[in-house]
Amino acid sequence: MDTPEEQARNPRVVVADDEPHVVAYVRAVLELEHFDVVGQAADADGAVRLCDRLRPDIVLLDLRMPGGGLNAAQLIAPLNPETHIVIFSAEADGPQILPLLRTGIDGYVVKGSTPEQLVGALRSVLTGGTYLSPEVSRVAMDELTNRLHAEQLDELREDRRRSAITDTITARRFHTVVQPIVTVTDGTLHGAEALTRFTTLPARAPDLWFREAEQVGLQVPLELATANAALAELARMRPELRLTVNLSPATVLSTRVGEILTTAPLDRVIIELTEHEPVTDYGAVAAALAPWRAKGARLAVDDAGGGYASFSHILNLAPEYIKLDMNLTADIDADRQRQALARAVIAFAREMGVSVIAEAVETAEQLQVLEGLGTHYVQGYHVGRPLPLDEQPLLLADDAPVEHRRIDIRSREDADLEQRRR
After folding, report:
1. What is the tally of helices (H) and strands (E) in the chain?
2. Higher pLDDT, 384 or 87
3. Residue 287 falls within a domain, yes or no?
4. CB of 242 closer than 8 Å to CB of 180
């Protein structure tokens, strides 16, 4: 509580404005009304320093001075909680009013107000009130209304996106397709990658559905639903084949991942760690994967050669498979730089005892180069398209001898380009 002496003294004011005639005017008005102008500054830094040193009762800030009145207010408010902050600006600056109110300003007076209005505003804030010039109040209300309207629209859009994802999960508006993974040396089938195709409208690429699910907080439920549908296909596949399912780090770390992995034949499952998000704690991801890998699940790291993150995954998680990024395999038959990078990745994998799967192999020329570089397995339109399992007879379980379960990958015609773009 202020002492009687402090209550009896004149209010102490710092004026911050880069226009000398404004400072002179304010000083004259305030001194006539028994305010003490104890300091003046021409920019935001000066205002902050004066307030820190002098601890005035009020600081009067020009919004448009060098350094900005908003910046000064944001620094002064926590530095000197007892100093009342009043903006004194040429106009009601709409975009800055709400940020200023959030900093805890006590008043906003528009230049051109009468001396009585200026003095009345300062006396009001000294008694614990808040003063906003009428035009500032109108702008603040308009700005707040617009902001709330925009937030409501954003919430409505997010609710609709969330509802669409939830409906996709509960109504199973998706199906699984599988793409063969073939051994380079002899064309035998090693397994397949499970991919998801969505029937929910609007029609769009699967990665957009997963990205939107992540944005609305439904990434884990959607991945679990699609992965569970994929794992169900193992019962209809040849028993020696493995199935790759895509899971993000968030889903791997989820306690719900056991819902789909506990009953799966893990010795036939490859968990492909996707790169929708960065891994911030490799120790946690490795620990979450450990019990499933101990029961036979293998780990694949996606997009090797596509960026730093994939190499971090490799070094920290020690996968059984490295998948060469499609941007690396594209045009690898004609690009010596891509060949050099792929050669380095494959040599590293060989040193670490890791198998390499090349993705997006679409021509015989790509296959030939990748074989020469030592790639273990390939997948892509040249060796097999993503199709429902019922349309993949070589993957379906039957009594055919193992030696008949191979693809003559060197005599296959290249995939039709137009079909490949669809």
Report:
1. 17, 14
2. 384
3. yes
4. no
